[in-house]
């Protein structure tokens, strides 16, 4: 009951609009009822008030009354029996009299007992006043105890009252339904339009959107369906793009692996066939080892990429002190680069404490990939510059390094970079890169915890 009252106190916009339509339809039905009953009552009155109709039907009533009197041997003073006939013909005002002496009157039939007593005590007593209405008609009647007369004033239009009420109620109900459906037609048409739009979206139509109309719950429903469709299409496009990218990488990587694998097999064949000296065997073993490690690195990159783009990839986020975490990550990266002969320069601009909620293992994997690429392709006589700062709720790590100007053998077709990009995106950040003027720039953003 309480929940019902709460809902009634906070009606939805759609329910208010429907209630408005109900009120309008009810008002139209009421006006229809009044108009129909008045018109039909007026029509019935005009028909029954016609002289020929009135005279013909009053004569029939007089004949019917005479038959009743004859069949039941009614005396002129038998007001109770006469009253029974009058009750059946309730629309008739009847007066029974003899030489202006009234024995029965419809208006006074409740006082029949008093009239009988007065008549018995005073035989010459005349009860009531004989009033002759302009439309009243007089007919002679033969009673069981003598002749008399009746004065009839009939309201024939009253017989149609029930029919008029029923027809009026029926037509007003039809009017209510018609008006309500007309007012509701816009909403029903919009619901059908939403349903049609859902079927179109089910077919995978990319550019279709359900039109937005009004400001009620149907508008919100259509808007939600459009947003859901757009989100679903983006997700499908992203999956298709990743699948296409994965296919291209696997194809290119398969070709790239075949070359070192052929070299390894060639060197091993030479060694096992005894077609080389001991010194050459050592040399060939070293070359085969380098090619084997090269293939291992390629497979590691492929594994990282497949792991980062797979549906089963999930982050194991934990909360860390941001300054402490990034200080350690940048320190490990600079230490590794300096061990390989690079000079580094770090600009750490964060002076306020902050926290991050991230997967440290994956974050370290990304920075290791950045370091590996710098070791492979950067000039050792240049400076690797790193900048760490906070911006718009993100921890920004920007890295710049010079690129060697000689021809570089591409070993992995950027698989590690793509894997890093997917990992950071799943953390809620971004990973972008660009190169120009023999410099390579990496921009990484990781969301900080509010």
TrEMBL record:
UniProt name for this protein: histidine kinase
Major location category of this protein: membrane
One CC-aspect GO term: plasma membrane
Residues covered by the Histidine kinase domain: 252-450
Reactions mediated catalytically: ATP + protein L-histidine = ADP + protein N-phospho-L-histidine
Residue span, HAMP domain: 191-237
Taxonomic superkingdom: Bacteria
Record-linked InterPro entries: HAMP_dom, HATPase_C_sf, His_kinase_dom, HisK_dim/P_dom, HisK_dim/P_sf, HssS/ArlS-like
Keyword terms: ATP-binding, Cell membrane, Kinase, Membrane, Nucleotide-binding, Phosphoprotein, Transferase, Transmembrane, Transmembrane helix, Two-component regulatory system
Molecular function terms from GO: ATP binding; phosphorelay sensor kinase activity
Membrane-topology descriptor: Multi-pass membrane protein
Localization annotation: Cell membrane
Biological source species: Hungatella effluvii
Transmembrane segments: 20-44, 163-184
EC number(s) given by UniProt: 2.7.13.3
CDD domains hit by this protein: HAMP, HisKA
PANTHER family xrefs: SENSOR HISTIDINE KINASE CPXA
